[in-house]
Amino acid sequence: MTVPTVKLNSGYDIPQLGFGVFLVPPAEAEKAVSEALEIGYRHIDTAAIYKNEEGVGAAIAKSGIDRSELFITTKLWNDRQSGEQPHDAMRESLDKLGLDSVDLYLTHWPTPERDTYSNAWQKLIEIRDAGLAKSIGVSNHLPAHLDRIVEDTGVVPSINQIELHPAHQQQDVLDWAATSGTKIESWGPLGQGKYPLFENPAVAAAAETHGKTPAQVVIRWHLERGFIVFPKSVRKERMAENLDVFDFSLTAAEIDAINAIDPGDGSGRVSAHPLEVN
Ligand code: NAD
């Protein structure tokens, strides 16, 4: 099984399917990431606020897998965006991960009330230039935030990681990315189990047709739409299920039917709105 890669505007390749560790408790993170690496995942998505970077780092160290085969992402938390703080935060994350550099460093939320996201982006550029992050990007940024950081710095993010699943597709953010060369990562790709995606007739029908599970159909939809995706599960059998999506393809009609799940008015969102997080 080979996971396809996506070429970023930095020139680096990112594995299109990975493993996310949001809400994996610190004490369980090492075990979960060790199992994920054993099964074949090579791309791990963590964040300072997940408080499990040490566990991720311990699993990486014990795996014996060559660093060059791994793609590790972490994120700058909202209260470290101002002044020179992003530099300190990056060093702390690298210490916890036990790494010299990450493959991708993201600002976690724009937190517009703080008005520090453009400074944070400037600091991420410096962090990249210092060789501590191979690629840099943002998360939860809306077109107005993206326009601002590009206008202020001239640097286009490699990635925008946003809540994205069939019920919440954020077409305006996708359009910005398509015209700018930014790649999209889908967080909450399975709707965090909060939206009844698996029972949806379009998903259920495709699962039946292909002899796959509804979760596998939704992951396949992300991949075929060109999104980068890292579903989370601490159950080993589900980790394996979520990686076992390279032996089938959805038809254009199936993709259209799944695209149509989005009510189109934002009501399919399952988590916080970017303007409300500070
Ligand atoms: P997700 O959509 O991946 O849902 C995870 C839940 O889905 C699991 O807890 C489990 O209950 C269920 N699940 C997983 N595999 C399943 C399967 N095969 N069958 C049935 N149910 C299954 O949600 P998520 O964890 O929030 O998102 C994935 C990753 O995205 C996170 O771990 C994290 O790395 C990232 N993330 C980023 C942000 C951000 O603000 N940037 C926010 C949330 C998550």
TrEMBL record:
GO MF annotation, one: oxidoreductase activity
UniProt entry tagged with the keyword Oxidoreductase: yes
EC code: 1.1.1.346
Residues covered by the NADP-dependent oxidoreductase domain: 24-262
Keyword NADP listed: yes
Keywords: NADP, Oxidoreductase
Residue spans crossing the bilayer: none
Top enzyme class: oxidoreductase
Alphabetical list of Pfam families matching this protein: Aldo_ket_red (PF00248)
Classification via PANTHER family: 2,5-DIKETO-D-GLUCONIC ACID REDUCTASE, NADP-DEPENDENT OXIDOREDUCTASE DOMAIN-CONTAINING PROTEIN
Stated family: Belongs to the aldo/keto reductase family.
Protein name per its UniProtKB record: 2,5-diketo-D-gluconate reductase A
UniProt source species: Microbacterium amylolyticum
